Known about the structure:
The chain is mainly beta.
Amino acid sequence: VRLVESGGGLVQAGGSLRLSCKPSGIITSVFNGNDWVWYRQAPGGQRDLVARFTTTRSTIYADSVKGRFTISKDYAKKIVYLQMNSLKPEDTAVYYCNTLKESVDWGQGTQVTVSS
């Protein structure tokens, strides 16, 4: 399985981006049977959980992104999305996805840069 994140870019503060995470080659039972998470890592920082989509279709967010980010999951296409609105410079980071158990090899991530 290969994780492919996309959708990042350079955006001004207040703007929006939608990130996509497609685990290439994943079987349906593994995609459906895991919590999926978006993480981010700023330069010099650790990888932090941003949003989580559970197997019961609940969502959990870091306090710093509540009300601005939305995680969703397309079961048919096997894609996990992260809609990011009202972006702030402090959202600048490389964004990664994985299962909560980190059971898939990490992808390259997608760079999000928010200018002030």
